[in-house]
Amino acid sequence: MSIKPKPTGISTLSGLLRMMGFSRRDDPFGQLLEQERANSGWFHAVIDSCLEHEACLFCEVSQSSLSNYLFWLPVNLRDAGFIKSLYTQGGFCPFHLKLVMLSLRDFPYSQVRFFMLLKQLLEKGVFPSKYHCHLCATLKGSLNAYRFAIDSLLNSPEESRRAETLVSNLCCRHAEYLRKDGCDDTREHEDNKRISAEEKRLWKAELLKTIGEISEEFHRMSSEELRRKLMRCETMVLKAIKESER
Known about the structure:
single chain; 246 residues; mainly alpha; 12 helices; disordered N terminus
């Protein structure tokens, strides 16, 4: 059973999420269980809460899913199956890559695993792009699960009135998402321009060298040296993302 990482201060992930307005839930991937979750008492509790506060269900689900994903990420990076799924889906888009790196700052050994994964992706020729992102897919899966549940409620004589009220509380963006039958891409970031091939080559070579040094020596480094090298990796990735957005 996974153990929750203990917070160490306001700079920890829990503090970060509180400052961002997100609240942690108990189940990290429970929202992806679709029909089972849609028929559960837990789902109806979420519905009741949104109705009581006249909140957008999809906004609440997105925030909850993102909070859970980031909270459990340091632990999940220890799991070989999770790493494999990240690799298969191409890592993260630039928007979520920045958020993921920020969320891992208090977990240096999880950072090591993450940058080793990034190294494998770069060696495979996969550069951060909006067209492949594990977190985007997770958030979209959560929204689709609740869209399915809303459809079920609308078709239920006993629940249709509550479902109509729930739909009326959706924000404009998610109301459009529901009208399009979940086909719309609900990510909030725009596509990024590609950096030049030469810029990418130089950035990739420097980053791979630094990650290689970390992966070979991290168990012998002092905590200060390890954090310094990890921050260097993060700075290089952020610089590359910034260049791609120009």
